[in-house]
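We include the pair:
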Amino acid sequence: MPRALIRRRTLGIMSAACAAGVFAPLLAARSRAAALGDRLTLGVAGQGEMYHLPVLLAEQLGFFKAEGLDVVLRDFSAGALALQALQDGTVDVVSGAYEHTIRQQLNGYALRSVVLHGRAPQIALGILPRMLPQYESVRDLAGKRIGVSAPGSSTHSFARWILAREGLNPQGATYVSMASATAAMAALRAGQIHALCHSDPIIAQAEQKQGLRVVVDARTIKASHELFGGTMPASCLYAAQPFVQKRPDQVQALVNAMVHALKWLQTAEPADIVKALPASYLATDRPLYLAAFHRIRETFSPNGMMPDDAPAVALRALTLAYPELAATKVDLARTFSNDWVRKARQKFNV
């Protein structure tokens, strides 16, 4: 064989090998995506709230793609609306409050939490002093207007629970929807509500800019444990039981990405958070956002596991907030599973 031909064939083989080395990971990722099925739509109840920060990080840092998933985040103004979208079939999975898995079981709709990313509510209730100048205790909120993200959402449940905990009728206040920071600030400024029950950064902004005075705070592990008598589970990824059964590979991939994000979050510096988030999330007030993040950081789960005591703590709180639940029976074992998280923890050594 002529020497020139030998050189051309050798170069061709080397080029092919090089191309294989470059494109093999990309092809493998595409192959995994094809094997896992179609695009997944993930409903998020208030994407800008820190409650869902691990989900946003998993998307922004490419952890979903690394697991071969094509995930589309769909933002909703409140948890109740994201839940409705799941029931309507317009989203596949929801990042929302674990409590929905309990409440919907009582309605005959089986939901299952597959990974927990919040181990405290990250919610606070504050009063507007100029609207309640004589305020002494939570009992003074009876008959008053309280801003919440939406009826049926976790902020609404939290406000109801606070009243019930004081021996008041949980329906003894008027709950006003305040889905966005803009709506909440406008309502506080205009004196349309007496109190606000929400999560950060909305509460932090209301404290700084509208003089909100926090009177019940569940934004730290210690405070949450003292309030609820144990671990109060909060944000999680949940899906309908048929989805979990029919698409276990996609569920595992989702959980892998979330556990990866939670691990990343444990050691991330403020500069890392700023770099990872879209600029729009920090444009309003970066120092305020980072200060609020620092306060609630410990409430994010380090590994995605549902703690042993958490489901019962959640049920106890819900029964107080919604007395009609007391006469019903809930199978808590059907509302969550740690199986996918255990596999993800092995993969990421957490």
